[in-house]
């Protein structure tokens, strides 16, 4: 393929489904093409799947304590291990008043480690 076509394809790949739909409508109107519905459905589906995959793996997430469970003391200890800057009072306040954000804008891998640690002592975590 030519470089021009590759550039156009790259730009189309970055469009949202709504933008792609608008592009197809404008192409149909401009060139009088009415045979694009089959093409547009396939392309829209493909792009939607690609967008969904990229959105399903956010690069940065927040970890939220949803419930401390019955073992609050263990959750407080785990909170202090996760965030050493927290004092006992702050960690207790988070454990006593869920839902509370434990960490913000962290990698998904780190968030999963935190979730595992808190849930192992009886707390409940949500990754957003």
List keywords for this structure.
single chain, 128 residues, Single alpha-helices involved in coiled-coils or other helix-helix interfaces, Ribosomal Protein L30, Chain: A, three-stranded antiparallel β-sheet, 62% helix
How would you describe what is shown here?
It is a single chain. The protein is an alpha+beta fold and 128 residues long. 62% of the residues lie in helices and 14% in strands. The protein has a three-stranded antiparallel beta sheet, covered by helices on one side. Helix 4 (72-82) crosses helix 5 (88-96). The radius of gyration is 24 Å and the shape is elongated. The two termini are 41 Å apart. The mean pLDDT is 80.
Indicate the topology:
Elements: H1 3-13, H2 17-31, H3 37-56, E1 61-67, H4 72-82, H5 88-96, E2 100-106, H6 108-120, E3 124-127
Antiparallel strand pairs: 1-2, 1-3
Give a brief outline of the structure:
The chain has about 130 residues and is an alpha+beta fold.
Query: Level of helix content?
Result: 55-70%
Overall number of strands: 3
Shape: elongated
How large is the radius of gyration?
24 Å
CATH architecture of the largest domain: 2-Layer Sandwich
Strand content: 5-15%
CATH C-level class of the largest domain is Alpha Beta
Q: Structural class given helices, strands, pairing?
A: alpha+beta
Main sheet characteristics = 3 strands, antiparallel
In CATH, the topology of the largest domain is named Ribosomal Protein L30, Chain: A
Query: Overall mean pLDDT score?
Result: 80
What's the CATH H-level homologous superfamily of the largest domain? Ribosomal protein L7/L12, C-terminal domain/Adaptor protein ClpS
Please indicate the count of domains.
Answer: 2
Spell the H/E element sequence.
HHHEHHEHE
Give the assembly state of these chains. single chain
Terminal residue distance: 41 Å
Instruction: Write out the strand line-up for the largest beta sheet, numbering strands in chain order.
Output: 2-1-3
> How many separate helices?
6
Unreliably modeled segments = none
